[in-house]
Amino acid sequence: MQRPSFHILTTIVLGLWTVTGQADEPASATKPKIKALIVDGHSNHPWWETTPILRRILESSERFTVDVATAPKQLREVVNFAPDFTPYQVVMMNYNGDDSVTRTGSANWSESTQKALEDYVRGGGNLSIIHSANNSFPKWKEYNRMIGLGGWGYRSEKDGPYAYYKDNKLVRDDSPGVGGWHGTEHPFQVITREPEHPIMRGLPTVWMHARDELYSHLRGPGENMKILATAYSPRKYTGRNVDEPMVMVLTYGKGRVFHTAMGHGTYSMRCAGFVTLIQRGTEWAATGEVTIPVPKDFPAADTPRESGIFRQPPK
Ligand code: ZN
Predict the structure, then answer these.
(1) CA 45 / ligand 1 centre spacing (Å)
(2) Is the N or C terminus of the chain more exposed, i.e. has fewer CB atoms within 10 Å?
(3) Is 3 a domain residue?
């Protein structure tokens, strides 16, 4: 007599699972949202145009709530800027400021704000580094350790080796020279180098990114760093015929860092590939896992594609 009732119970339980599995909500929708802070206010790029795009990219995934901390406009002096990083699971740097007063229009952070970011990441806070945020703070040693690779601001061999792929092998090149370069903007192919990393799982091996600056000659400490994707930078675009790092992940203390060299213009950021990487990379930085799916409109190898999120009303 007991067996049939056990069987009935099993059927009911399985029935419940089936209903749950068929729900329209993605698995991520049931998770608490990730609190993200975008930092902007200084850049040689129009941060007031790119921050709304980055916010939309994060919010459209329904995985994030986004706040923005904008540094005050003060030139050639220490900025009185002290955002509280601690309530956030991830801080996105859409910021290119200086740590000296030698560059016109730049501004630096106070030592206590720098220390606050270091403590935040070291203690398990996390970073998402966008494009020219890797030009920022060239002399701030710990920032350079957090981003792994950087360019411009008189970066050179003193800051660490160049990192790139040549003949499908990772090269760390100690040769002397300045860090940071790009030629004319153009669409370019991005090549996956770590297909098993959670951010990259399910992405094509090769896909076409929209028009962007192809950063080359990045160099830095590169500690605890993995290069997830590269792009070939040919001589005709003033590159050096090697595959330059485009997507990196690092750890710094207990913190995780996602870093992409892509994202010069709003048109670059509207690329479906860029959107996917920002969502998944920032989710990985915040949580150590990726639940945001690769969309159906992900670009193929030959043609860039604009993300469908820009054809929907903002969330
Ligand atoms: Zn740029």
Answers:
(1) 6
(2) N
(3) no
Instruction: Determine the distance separating the centroid of ligand 1 and the alpha carbon of 187, expressed in angstroms.
Output: 14
Report how far ligand 1's centroid is from the alpha carbon of 152 (Å). Answer: 11
Cα-trace Rg, the chain: 21
26 confidence band (pLDDT: 50, 70, 90): low
- Tell me, what's the pLDDT at 75? 57
Q: Residue 279's pLDDT is what?
A: 98
Count up the domains in the chain and report the number. Answer: 1
CA of 15 to the centre of ligand 1 (A): 53
**Identity (one letter) of the amino acid at 162?**
Y
- pTM: predicted TM-score of the whole model, two decimal places: 0.89
Q: Is 242 helix (H, G, I), strand (E, B) or coil?
A: strand
- For residue 273, the surrounding DSSP H or E stretch is helix 272-287
Domain that holds residue 279: 30-311
Rounded (10°) CA dihedral 221, 222, 224, 230: 170
Return the CATH number at 175.
3.40.50.880
CA of 19 to the centre of ligand 1 (A): 48
Is 5 domain-assigned? no
CA of 209 to the centre of ligand 1 (A): 15
How many other C-beta atoms can be found within 10 angstroms of the C-beta atom of residue 73? Answer: 10
Judge whether 50 lies within some domain: yes
CA–centroid distance, residue 63 to ligand 1 (Å): 27
Residue 19 lies in a domain: no
Centroid of ligand 1 to alpha carbon of 268 (angstroms): 10
